[in-house]
Structures are given as C-alpha cells and as structure tokens.
Design goal:
Structural class: alpha/beta
Bound molecules: 5'-O-[(S)-ethoxy(hydroxy)phosphoryl]adenosine
CATH topology of the largest domain: Rossmann fold
CATH superfamily of the largest domain: ANL, N-terminal domain
CATH architecture of the largest domain: 3-Layer(aba) Sandwich
Shape: globular
Strand content: 15-25%
CATH class of the largest domain: Alpha Beta
Number of strands: 30
Largest sheet: 8 strands, mixed
Helix content: 25-40%
C-alpha cells in the first residue's frame, strides 16, 4: 500500500443516543476530557474499580519499551475480583450465568454457586500439582465449566491457554506444546448442530504428542463413551468432590493471566500474553462504559465463543468483574431453527447483546420475519465486533433487532489489545452506521501514512500511540517476534524517532468529524490502476444493494490494472440468482458499486452460497484470492467448513471465469 488509502464511500446518516439513555449513562462526554491530559492517571482512577490487596507504587513503567508494566507493585487476585467480592457484598444469590445448552437444557448459576465451583476447581488443580506460573490448557465446549476452569486457573496464578473447541488435533497439540501446558481441561464432547460432537478423542491424540501434559481433567457433558488413559480424571469425581473452601492468594499486577493464540495469516500461531492488573482494569471499565452496564437490571449476552478474546474479555473477565448477570449459550444460531438467538433473548430478557457482523449478515440473509417473531423489546444496547460492520448490516441490526432505538456500538479491538479500543459510548456518541467512531477515553489511536505522519482526513494505517493497560505484554517465548510484528513498522522500533508506535495491521480512514472507519487488514487492500481500494468499502457497497446479504471482495492479479476486483456475493434467501435473472443481477450489482464508489471500483461479481470463514467468523479472503487467481488453495486448516471452497471453485469456474483475463474484461471501467 502506498502513502494513503482511497476514501471512496461517504455515509451521511447519524444517530444520536436516546435521550433517556444519555440521562442515566454511566459515562458522559467528560470522560474524554478527564483522560486526555494524562491517560495513565485516568487508568489509575479506573483501577479503583477493582479490589487490590496491595496498592501499586507506580501506575505505568514504560522505561523499557515496548515492554510495559502497569500498576507496578500492586497485588490482587482476579478470581476474588470476579466472584468472591460480589458474594461478600451480599450478592451471592444474584445470577451470574443463565446457561442454555443447545438441546434446550439449562442451568442457573449464582455468584455463590460460582464461588463454590471455582474454589473446588482451584483445590483440585492444586492437588494435581499445578502451582503459580504453570500453564493449563482448556479445550471445552461452551459450558459453565469453561468459565469455572478459567477462573480457577486465575485464582491460583496458573496462566490458562484456552483453545477453541472446534480446533483439530494438530492445532491443539501445537498450542499445548508451545505453552508447555501441564494439565488439560476438556470434556467428553459438546452439542453442535443438533448432535453430540466429541472432544476427548482429539485431546487423546494431541496429548500423545505432548510430554508436558501430566493430567487431563474431563467434564462429562454428552455422556458418550470415551477412551480412558492413565492421565485422565473425571471432573465430577475430582472437582465436584473437592472442598469448596479456598483462600485466594494475591498476585503481582504483572503476573501472567493467560496466553491466547491467534493464528494470523502465516507462520505458526502467536501466543499472545496478557497479565493481571492492567488487563482486568481495562476490560472491567470498557465492559461497564461501552455497554452502559446497569448491574442490577441488565442481562448481558456475549455470543462469542470463550475460545476467542471476545469471550475472555466479555463473557468472563469483564462481566464477572462487574458482577453482571449474563447468558451463555452452548450451540449454533441455527439449531434447531433460525430463530434460536431471538428465542434466547426473549426467554432471558437480554438487554445487552454483543455479537459479530458475520452473524448479523447471516440473520439478514435468513430474513426479517425471523426476529419479528420474538419479543426483543428488552434489548437496549447492541454491540458488534470482529470485522468491519457494513453500514447496511448496521442499519439492519438497529432496525430489526434494536427496534430502531437501541444504540449500536461497533467496537474495534484485537486479541493483542486485550480490551476494547475504539468504540462509541452509547450515552454520548452520535453514531454513524459502519464507523467505530473514536478511541475510548484513555486510548490514542491514529491513522498514519507510510512515514507515520497523521492523516487528518483520509485513509492510511491504523496505529496506537502510547501504552494501554490491557495491551499484550509479549508473544509467549518470543520477544523478538513481538517487536517485529507490532513495533517495527513505525516509530522508534523502525528507527524513526523516540516514540514507540504499535501497528495494528489494519487500514482505516478518518472522516471530517474525526470518526474512524475500519477498512480491514492492510494485507487485503487492493491496488487498482494505482489506487488503493479497501475490500471493506466495496463489500459495503455491495451489501447496500437490497438483494445482497453478504459479500467478500479480493484483488486478483491483473496485467493491465495491477489488480482486478473480484466479488463473491451471497444473495438474500428469496432472490433468484440463476440463469438470466442472475446475469442481470450481476450487471446491476457492478453498476451499483460503480455508482456508489466510482467506476474504478467496478467488480466482477459471482454468486456463491457460502463464504470461507475462520472459526471465529472472519472471511478468509486469501482463499478467495487463490480461486480468483486460479491457484491451488493455500492453508485451509483454520477454515470452518472446508467443503465451502469446492462449491465456490465450481461456481467461479465458468470456463472463462477462472482465468484472470476474464475478470479484467468484465471489470474494465
Ligand atoms: C478486526 C477481536 C473492524 C480487525 C476482538 C482486527 C474489526 C481483528 C473490528 C482482530 C471492528 C475487530 N471493525 N474490524 N469493530 N473488531 N476487527 O484478534 O481486523 O479476533 O485487527 O479480536 O479483527 O481480531 P481478533
């Protein structure tokens, strides 16, 4: 990508916060002013939300960048902050988790229940020889034991490494080995798409390759037969029999809390390391401020899997540190029917919903009548995370889920940032559909050009300036890779000046009002006839057409224009995309994009039934590029459903279609 990024689309709609929300909002516009002059001092005030056993001596130590230390000398116990203190404050009978199993079974877990279970699990792990600093791998379905396991690890200072329950033997084994985990906590299986899906066999195969593992603790969820080895122990025969009394011990603010692997586009996964005090401070504050959490009345539901950072920060540490009541759901949104999510919202009177654009677009595809069949009036805040949300998906979310009144907060952050970084505040910000708006109080994000100069209005690279409390501390076991990946593109790490600047890997643009628009990973940005065009903008233009539910765009090498734009489009469920009707629609869509973004952005359009997605729901554009450039597919191991690519290849491969010159012909302005 050269100096800046084209700024093609414009969005004029804006939605002020509902006055009644503003009147009672947890945070007002004053927070930005309070934080601006001295971010560390602002964060020190937010750290008072937590219960510290020993107060810090120094808020921030940034003397050895890019290695930050927050709340130096402070000591606390994370599990105490997430559980015990709520019970001590008389809220033991408050529901912590309304758990809903996929088959329709449910469990209600109060804070007092959680305290007993976490204490039992902490005692068991200790008996198994796990001590502070030992790593524990967690490979579980979305069941309450996953939360209990994580909190028990935190309670005894053993960093957890949660591995998404859908990952393969290979992925699990690599992560266990990299972290050198001593214990693995798993289950016989979980329920997925209407039937039991085994986990234990995957663990057995992985553990056979991982000599560091001494014990495997197995939760019984499905009751299916499992092979049993000498390292294996049942959760119900150990944890559930253990003492429910456990004295939490305080740990240093910089004690490692967890490792979470992110798989990036190339190379082996990176073990992102997060620590204790700074992480919990930012996650607790952002969960409370961005969702305007009213702890006595709100019911929060983060629909992300616990194996992603969103699940760590907004299903475990954020809501529980705040003493919230929340919903946890085991299964998929389409089992047993397309209204499953809205049924759950209706059943538990969910007031805060946090999900991903991929899910919102899927719901759009299924049709407006599905959510219309449920009472969604309890919803008052809607969150989005994980990918840029297209303006039309944003509008749909607000209208069909948020009854045209609930603010949509589009939250930008990363596994690496630990906590939310860029987001509206629901009682303060007038939101623009598709924009994550501005950095949160205490955070400095910027859009810069190649030379790290701020781009006041227009597109460039999204960077973060100055350390923030929940920032990753390093990549587990690889400080050099930490520096190379995030700190060597701009600023001091690149040998330019004294300032350490964190490169996010994302492109963004800033509009006249200072609002930020995320444009996807810079690796995906296209260069067409010398212009940088973001895939996000073309995708959003497509999604703004009434027949389109979802679109993925890639640049395919082209001898004349450099790259030609290829668009893979999913139509809404009632649209005929076959034969003549389909041909006419593709022309219509090309023209629609050209009209919205200019003739240079005219894509070649093919209709597909599905898009390749990672297991966390992000579109894998790299694979679509392989198709568009008629290459053998690259690594598909993180793909959710590998059959999708066969269908797409077949759809793309009209005899002329799989050759790049055809894309060029049909995309010439
Ligand atoms: C993307 C998820 C646009 C972005 C918390 C980022 C987003 C990556 C948004 C991190 C958003 C996340 N708008 N893009 N609101 N949120 N992203 O590590 O490319 O799973 O760098 O963390 O997702 O993904 P991760």
């Amino acid at each position: 990508m050269s100096t800046t990024l084209g700024n093609l689309s414009t969005e004029t709609r804006a939605f002020a916060p509902p006055p009644e929300l503003t009147a009672q909002a947890n945070v007002t516009a004053a927070a930005y002013d309070e934080a601006a002059p001295d971010a560390p001092a602002f964060w020190a005030r937010q750290a008072e939300r937590l219960t510290w056993v020993r107060k810090w001596d120094q808020v921030l130590d940034w003397s050895n960048p890019p290695f930050a230390k927050w709340f130096v000398g402070g000591e606390l116990n994370i599990a105490y902050n997430c559980v015990d203190r709520h019970v001590e404050a008389g809220r033991g009978e408050k529901v912590a988790i309304h758990w809903e199993g996929e088959p329709g079974d449910s469990r209600t877990i109060t804070y007092a229940d959680l305290l007993r279970s976490v204490s039992q699990a902490a005692n068991t792990l200790t008996e198994l020889g796990v001590t502070a600093g030992d790593r524990v791998a967690v490979y579980l379905p979305m069941i309450p034991e996953a939360v209990v396991a994580m909190l028990a690890c935190a309670r005894i200072g053993a960093p957890h490494s949660v591995v998404f329950g859908g990952y393969s033997v290979e992925a699990l084994a690599t992560r266990i080995q990299d972290a050198g985990a001593k214990v693995v906590i798993t289950a016989d299986g979980g329920y997925r798409r209407g039937s039991p899906s085994a986990l234990k066999p995957t663990v057995d195969d992985a553990v056979a390759r991982c000599p560091s593992v001494e014990r495997v603790l197995v939760v019984r969820r499905t009751g299916e037969d499992v092979a049993w080895g000498e390292k294996d122990l049942w959760w119900h025969e150990t944890v559930e029999q253990a003492s429910d009394q456990h004295e939490p011990q305080a740990f240093d603010s910089e004690h490692p809390l967890f490792i979470l692997y992110t798989s990036g586009t190339t190379g082996r996964p990176k073990g992102i390391l997060h620590t204790t005090g700074g992480y919990l401070t930012q996650v607790s504050y952002t969960h409370w401020s961005v969702f305007d959490l009213k702890v006595d009345t709100d019911v929060h539901w983060c629909a992300a899997d616990i194996g992603w950072i969103t699940g760590h920060s907004h299903l475990v540490y954020g809501p529980l540190s705040n003493g919230a009541t929340q919903v946890m759901y085991e299964g998929t949104p389409d089992t047993p029917h397309h209204g499953r999510f809205w049924e759950i919202v209706d059943k538990y009177r969910v007031s805060i919903l946090y999900t991903a654009p991929t899910l919102i677009r899927t719901m759009m595809k299924w049709g407006d009548d599905v959510p219309a069949g449920y009472d969604l009036s309890s919803l008052r805040i809607l969150g989005s995370v994980g990918e840029p949300i297209n303006p039309e998906a944003w509008m749909w979310y607000r209208k069909h889920i948020g009854h045209d009144n609930a603010p949509v907060v589009d939250t930008w952050w990363q596994t690496e940032t630990g906590g939310m970084m860029i987001s509206p505040l629901p009682g303060v910000t007038a939101t623009k559909p598709g924009s994550a708006m501005t950095p949160l109080p205490g955070i400095t994000a910027d859009v810069v050009d190649d030379a790290a100069e701020s781009v006041p209005n227009g597109g460039g690279f999204l960077v973060l300036r100055g350390p923030w409390p929940a920032m990753l501390r390093t990549i587990w076991g690889d400080d050099k890779r930490f520096i190379d990946t995030y700190w060597s593109r701009f600023g001091a790490g690149a040998g330019a000046g004294d300032e350490w600047i964190y490169f996010t890997g994302d492109g963004a643009k800033r509009d006249e009002d200072g609002a930020l628009w995320l444009l996807g990973r810079v690796d995906d940005i296209m260069v067409v006839s010398g212009h940088n065009i973001s895939t996000t903008e073309v995708e959003s233009a497509l999604v703004s057409h009434p027949v389109v539910a979802e679109a993925a765009v890639v640049g395919a090498a082209d001898p004349i224009t450099g790259q030609a734009i290829a668009a893979f489009v999913i139509a809404r469920s009632n649209v005929d995309t076959t034969g003549r009707a389909g041909e006419e629609l593709t022309i219509d869509l090309r023209n629609h994009v050209a009209k919205t973004l200019g003739p240079i952005a005219k894509p070649r359009v093919v209709f597909v039934a599905e898009l390749p997605k990672t297991r966390s729901g992000k579109i894998m554009r790299r694979l679509l590029k392989d198709v568009a450039e008629n290459r053998t597919l690259g690594d598909v191991s993180t793909l959710l459903d590998s059959t999708v690519m066969d269908l797409i290849k077949a759809g793309y491969g009209t005899p002329a279609g799989s050759d790049v010159s055809a894309i060029r012909r049909s995309t010439a302005p």
